[in-house]
């Protein structure tokens, strides 16, 4: 979505606002993918740590069936639901809503590939295979980055070209992960009992993710009600936030795999020490991103749009963006530690508290008092601080470090 934002932003304010709204809805697919990847990583890593690689890969088979079915349902459902969803988020702006719905119906066709790739990432990370997923995901992102400007500009597809580029890249990525699973020469038959066990873990992560989605969908809806320039500026800032989160998530991914393997092997002391070191590393990485984003304040927004009003609005969010990155680095790292430990129930409850008690009231209050984009990002700051406090409390108790092949 970062490439889409940069490419489409130069088509004008309306297309950028449309991608902001359509992309926010499509983030539901990314959220489902994160749930599947995180849940699969923890279960596969524990089995791998217990010395049973075949069982770890088998977790990936069942997760892939679940991913493909969910992606297919999402792709079909969005053909019907795209219009009502984007009209709700656009706050009655029919021009933006129409463009967003057209983009979303096409982009949703990539959901099966996107979710297959997420499941593949999960089981591969669980068996400590981090090189192939990197190549597969990087290759798909490069393909999208090449196709997007090509389809949007010289081939004349405009906004639609952005959606097509996403579908092609996501389908290619999902195919690569499916091929890797076939190459393992394990049984590919679906086993409802294992899928059911994954759904139990996934349920808590799903509810946790729903709290995220409600928060960020609401943030986009509030931004849209402040006008095209504000929602376009929010799209730039939030996509850069997601990009930094994705990079910082590398620490969380390592945490999931390493902590899960340590607990699967019965080494709870090692898992606790890993948790402390990973939290510190996350904070350092977040601070590094803060320096980079802060240094680029006068330049980076202009990469995404030439509209001076949108650039001006983006700068309202920038101080919040920079100051939150070090805290976010610690939060994402500790998320990875607890997901690797299978402590999904606690994460679910903590995220709901932070969303319902912090983010959602704050952003709707920002709308009520006309606080603009600064008010929205103040709500995000409250969300991050509340999550950090609950995660540090859990780490201190040590109750998350439960040993065994499967929690």
Automatic annotation (TrEMBL):
Gene Ontology molecular function terms on file: antiporter activity; xenobiotic transmembrane transporter activity
Xref: CDD domains: MATE_DinF_like
Bilayer disposition of the protein: Multi-pass membrane protein
GO cellular component: plasma membrane
Keyword Secreted belongs to the record: no
Keywords: Membrane, Transmembrane, Transmembrane helix
Subcellular location: Membrane
Principal location listed in the UniProt entry: membrane
InterPro entries, sorted: DinF-like (IPR044644), MATE_fam (IPR002528)
Positions of transmembrane segments: 16-38, 63-83, 103-123, 135-157, 163-184, 205-227, 239-266, 278-304, 316-334, 346-367, 373-393
Signal peptide boundaries: none
UniProt keyword Membrane, yes or no: yes
PANTHER family linked to this entry: PROTEIN DETOXIFICATION 44, CHLOROPLASTIC, PROTEIN DETOXIFICATION 44, CHLOROPLASTIC-RELATED
Family listed: Belongs to the multi antimicrobial extrusion (MATE) (TC 2.A.66.1) family.
Protein name listed in UniProt: MATE family efflux transporter
Protein's organism: Phytohabitans rumicis
């Amino acid at each position: 979505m970062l490439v889409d934002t940069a490419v489409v932003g130069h088509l004008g304010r309306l297309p950028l606002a449309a991608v902001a709204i359509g992309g926010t809805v499509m983030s539901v697919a990314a959220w489902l993918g994160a749930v599947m990847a995180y849940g699969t990583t923890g279960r596969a890593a524990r089995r791998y740590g217990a010395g049973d690689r075949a069982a770890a890969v088998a977790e990936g088979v069942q997760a892939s069936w679940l991913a493909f079915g969910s992606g297919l349902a999402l792709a079909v459902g969005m053909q019907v639901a795209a219009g009502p969803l984007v009209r709700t988020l656009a706050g009655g702006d029919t021009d933006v809503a129409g463009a967003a719905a057209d983009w979303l119906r096409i982009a949703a066709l990539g959901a099966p590939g996107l979710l297959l790739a997420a499941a593949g990432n999960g089981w591969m990370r669980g068996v400590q295979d981090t090189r192939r997923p990197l190549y597969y995901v990087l290759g798909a992102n490069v393909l999208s980055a090449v196709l997007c400007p090509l389809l949007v500009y010289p081939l004349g597809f405009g906004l639609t070209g952005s959606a097509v580029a996403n579908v092609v890249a996501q389908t290619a990525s999902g195919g690569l992960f499916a091929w890797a699973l076939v190459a393992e020469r394990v049984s590919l038959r679906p086993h409802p009992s294992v899928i059911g066990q994954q759904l139990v873990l996934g349920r808590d992560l799903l509810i946790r993710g729903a709290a995220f989605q409600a928060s960020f969908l609401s943030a986009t809806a509030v931004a849209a009600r402040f006008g095209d320039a504000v929602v376009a500026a929010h799209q730039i800032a939030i996509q850069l936030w997601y990009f930094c989160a994705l990079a910082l998530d590398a620490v969380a991914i390592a945490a999931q795999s390493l902590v899960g393997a340590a607990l699967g092997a019965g080494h709870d002391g090692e898992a606790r020490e890993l948790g402390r070191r990973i939290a510190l590393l996350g904070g350092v990485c977040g601070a590094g991103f803060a320096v980079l984003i802060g240094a680029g304040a006068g330049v980076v927004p202009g990469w995404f749009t030439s509209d001076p009003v949108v650039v001006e609005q983006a700068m309202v969010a920038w101080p919040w963006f920079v100051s939150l990155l070090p805290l976010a680095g610690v939060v994402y790292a500790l998320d990875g530690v607890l997901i690797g430990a299978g402590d999904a129930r606690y994460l679910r409850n903590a995220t709901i508290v932070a969303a319902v008690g912090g983010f959602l009231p704050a952003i709707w209050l920002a709308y009520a008092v006309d606080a603009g984009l600064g008010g929205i990002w103040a709500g995000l700051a409250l969300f991050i601080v509340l999550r950090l406090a609950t995660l540090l409390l859990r780490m201190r108790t040590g109750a998350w470090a439960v040993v065994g092949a499967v929690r």
